[in-house]
Amino acid sequence: MIYTTDGAYHGDGTDTGFSVRVFQCGRVRVSPNLPFGGDHCGIVKGSGVFVPPSKRLWLPVCAFLVTTPKGRVLVDTGWHRDMSPDGVYDKRAQIKSLGSWALYKVNQGEVAAGQTIDEQLAAEGLRPSDLDYVVVSHLDCDHANGLKLVADAKRIMIARDEMDGANEPGFVNRIRFCPRWWAGLDNIDLYDWNDDQGPCRRSFDLFGDGSVRLVNIPGHTRGQVAVKITNPSGKYVLLFADGGYATRSWRDMVTSGISLDKSEQRRSLAWIREQSISPDCIASMACHDPDNTPRVIEF
Question: What cofactor(s) does the depicted protein rely on (predicted)?
């Protein structure tokens, strides 16, 4: 791959109209066991509720703007401004935004001035209403907390399996998922699988032409999706959300500390690895990879 000084990859010089812009929408501080706990890490250890700030990792929180000839697709939203009203770390504001002290103990975040998704879209001359789709990879806070910042998008896509899973009763779900983040949005499309790609042969073909597929990668949550963007020549970019937290996740098959089903998580991670090492893969990115940098990939 060849990148320009502004971090843009320009493929072979052929203008296909496909690009992925990487936004960093703040950052999150977590226990090292949450992203890289491995197969024998349980939810208590993975959550890191007893891990002090000095032992935690700061990871980027990313969102991705996908542009194709069929339309614009935003993948995930990052943090809402009310997490950091003044652009700095704010414990009290975060607890209110996240909906509980317990979730704050797992995920501490901050989003600097100019870094919320609506602010960064505006810097690119775009409004939320210019988005044809917002795809939510899964409903964890650092992916869905900012949904109301893009409430004017034409459609917000959430897998029905993901919403059903988030609504299941139980102590963990009550802490992990906060319906207030998406309450009142009347443009949410709870979609069912219409395609057979991926580790479970469950996917959704967004435009009906195979260019943007939402591929179910369960394990971390039930309905989590990776987004695979494929240009006419078969080259693609894979955005695998929290199917793994970094390149090392699929390279070394390191599962995360928080998961619903470790065996499903490993199967999803194996698929991510297979996709990532293909010669047709231009880029493969997790949401929280420490190596992620804001850039544009044109392919």
Answer: Zn(2+)
